[in-house]
Sequence to fold (486 residues):
Amino acid sequence: MNVWMSLIVSLIAIGAVVVVGAIGGLVPALHPVFGVVIPYAALAVFILGFIWRVLRWAKSPVPFPIATTAGQQKSLPWIKQDKLENPSTRWQVVDRMILEIVLFRSLFRNTRMELYKENGKLTYGWQLWLWAFALAFHYSFLVVVLRHLRFFLDPIPLPVTLLESVDGFLQVGLPSVMISGFVLLGAVGYLLVRRLYVPFMRYISLPSDYFPLFLIASIAATGILMRYVVRVDVVGVRELTLGIATLNPVVPDGINFLFYIHLFLVCVLLAYFPFSKLMHLGGIFMSPTRNLRGNSREFRHVNPWNYPVKTHTYDEYEEEFRDRMIEAGLPVEKQPAESGSATDTESAEDSAE
Amino acid sequence: MKIYDAGKVIAGLIIFFVVFTFPVYYNHGKVEPAPKPSLETEKIQSLYEKNCVEDKATMRSGHMLLLDKWRDTVVRDRLRSYAGFKGTRFEMSLSNTCMDCHSNKEQFCDACHNYAGVTPYCWECHLTPKEMK
Fold:
């Protein structure tokens, strides 16, 4: 699929989601469906799909130690091991995993081969932007999700309130601007522009790459609209979301249809999650290149499903062809003078078997 | 088919499930009913026409914007009079105008703000009605 097809397909998909959500919001009779039934269905698909996907991964055997070895492996005692880049114990693996998940260290090392116009040399350059924006994207998304806990928890825990006051510490405008929402939208925008602007990124991008970006961008945009422009009835919204969280669903009147678009987009995100690239949330824990120990020198790893291979060693070969080899003047290991006794011992071995 | 590292995978999935269903058991299935801001104050009861500065819908969703505008107008332009939606003039003052009618901060302001987890910074400078007495 070329870039236009991919963009058109994903934009039509996201447009359809927004329209369906808007219909759900504008027709009061559909509020129980869009406010209760679909969110529960989406949550069920998310949780069950997530478990199914992880179990499916867990069914794939990982017979070989394929940990990426980005540093000195554990070797002789006087050679310093790079414990973080080439972990040899479980705890070192845990350290590496935590830093990978929290700081995206492997993305930090992102390099790109480029032809420098100034000197005409082909050089590997360090590409930091993707790492920086990926970090901004994931952390702002996390903060946004955690802030939303005020809609789902009662009483609202102190950490959520504190996070909100830190997020809004600029105290700009009323309701005060939450930094994370705008950082999220900006970072999604960067990831989208990067896909469209860099030629080889554009070439490898598919609707399954654009759709999640559009989806998350629409969620952020509707959220920002609801907070700063339309200002939906927060009390009503919390009544509905608390109802979902406590399994006592209620559908209050008078919530703006924009909320239903937002909610439906989130439901689509949840239901789409286990079947998409977004599943790297679970996949990062299942990456054999990260979660295995680099101990290929310490232990001999044998492929567990090796079948007994039929071998024909040189000794056996010479035994079979010795006479003809001597005839052809080829050197042999054992001379035929000894072969008489050798044959005797061999037949003795044969009978012993 | 065999699940490799079943112990670790299932432990991870249990953690996933516990984290993502946190709201369900945190709330114990109990819901605090949605608040109804109380208008039961002497001043409001004595009013012939029970009107706020703007109409109810505007006040409900936009009272913070009105207060923000009032603050800026008073502090920056020294203007204190504001024409309400019925043409009535109001003094732009949180303590003297808003809190005069809505003197029941706990049942009025706080009812929704606490429910929605909003902490307005009005009271970092302004005295609450109780403190004024």
Observations:
- Chain B has a mean pLDDT of 87.
